[in-house]
Structure formats: C-alpha cells, structure tokens
Amino acid sequence: MIYIAPSLLAADFTRLGEDTARIEAAGADFLHLDVMDGIFVPNISFGPAVIGALRPQSKLVFDVHLMITAPERYVDRFIKAGADIISFHLEACEDPAALIKTIKAAGVKAAVAISPDTPAEAIIPYLADVDMALIMTVYPGFGGQKFMADMLPKIKAVREYVDKNSLDCLIQVDGGIDVATAPLVSAAGANVLVAGSAVFHADDAKKKIADIRSAAANNLYK
Ligand code: DX5
Ligand code: ZN
C-alpha cells in the first residue's frame, strides 16, 4: 500500500483551509505539515496554532514533520493541536528514545527523521519502536528542491532491516517526489511519499496524486 502525503508548505498560505480541503477531495492520504524553527533549518514556516486551526476542518491524517531544535520542548503543543503522527529529527534531539515514548504515550504515532548526511545506521536502533521512519531526499528547509538519488541505497537499507525483523514501520520519503522519482523510491522500499510542489502546483491535483500513486505502485520493492 502506497500513501501519498502532500506537503502544506507548497499550499497558498492565504488559503490554507481551502487548499487542505482541495487535496483531501483529490485523494490524499496524509496532510504533511512541515514545521521549521529557523534554527535547525534556515527557514521558518508555521506552528501548532495553524495546525490546530486546520484540525477540525479535515479528516486527513495529520503528519507533522518537526524540523526544530530540541523538539521535546514543543511536542505537547503539537499533540494538543491534533497531530496523528509526529516525526522529529534524530540530529535535533538528545534523547530520541524518551521522546518516542512521550509521543506514543499520548496515543500519537511516532516517527524519526534523518537528513541526507545521516547514515541508515543511525536510525536502525529506533526502528523497532517507531511507527514510521522518514528519510529525507533533500536537505530539509525548503520545498521545490531536486530529489537526491544518492539517498536510494539508504532507503533500501532501512527497508531490508524492517522486513528482516518483521517490523511494523512505514518508510516515508520527503523531497523532490513526483511521477518520475516515485517509482525509484518505491522500488527502494518507501511506502509513504511526501509531495509538496508536485501536488499543490499541479493543475489537476487529483490526477497528480493518482499518477504518483500508480507510478509507485507499479514499481514496488521486492
Ligand atoms: C522540506 C520539507 C518537505 C517539502 C517537500 O524541508 O520537509 O516536506 O515541503 O517539498 P517538495 O515536494 O516540493 O520537494
Ligand atoms: Zn517534510
């Protein structure tokens, strides 16, 4: 099963409610919400108030991607705002195991994310405890960047470990995903595809989501 997670970062910020409803009607599975603090990444986006305002308007799975330093400081705020999944960066957190526990104790799914310079080995010790692993396929901070094909072996290494140990862990990729790159990441073992610009800037978001989904589904990891 392939899940498509459009990133709200590529929406029209004057029309977040309408754009959320538009991609929900277009068949999105998750709404990917990129939170940036201007410290962990050189950009600032939005925080829990915006997510909390959108929550009652949508039934989508709210997939909150925290690109913030010391995420443990703010995780409660995102839980209260209505996150269904919270991912935080291993590079940004001192005690990932404790934060995974905090998130799961609140009944929210926990995910760990790694930036391009962090190897697969760093995330392996957490895979048994998380619901999802997020492998960045661009340097975090901005939408619209070029997909990094050199991340494919990392995706495959994580997929091999998850399968070998029969873990219940989704594998998400984020950055530069479109119809051309979707089959590459699905063949490597990813099953949750974040797509910001590709979906929100498409003339027909429904067709774009369907095309990305089928491009991935026709080229699955085996
Ligand atoms: C980058 C964000 C991504 C970004 C993806 O820091 O984590 O979610 O919005 O955007 P596209 O799909 O345009 O590469
Ligand atoms: Zn993201």
Give your account of this protein's structure:
This protein is an alpha/beta fold and 222 residues long. The chain has one domain (3-217): Aldolase class I (TIM Barrel, Alpha-Beta Barrel). Helix content is 34%, strand content 19%. It is built from nine helices and eight strands. The protein has helices at 16-25, 48-54, 75-81, 96-105, 120-123, 152-164, 182-188, 197-200, 205-217; strands at residues 3-6, 30-36, 61-67, 85-89, 109-114, 132-136, 170-174, 192-195. It has an eight-stranded parallel β-sheet. Strand 6, helix 6 (152-164) and strand 7 (170-174) form a beta-alpha-beta unit. The longest helix is centred in the last third of the chain and has 13 residues, at 152-164. The two termini are 13 Å apart. The mean pLDDT is 98. D-xylitol-5-phosphate is lined by residues 7, 9-10, 32, 34, 65, 138, 140-145, 174-177, 194-198.
Can you tell me the number of structural domains? Answer: 1
Structural class designation:
alpha/beta
Strand order of the largest sheet: 1-8-7-6-5-4-3-2
CATH architecture: Alpha-Beta Barrel
The CATH topology name reads TIM Barrel
Strand content: 15-25%
CATH class: Alpha Beta
List the ions, cofactors and other small molecules found in this model: D-xylitol-5-phosphate, zinc ion
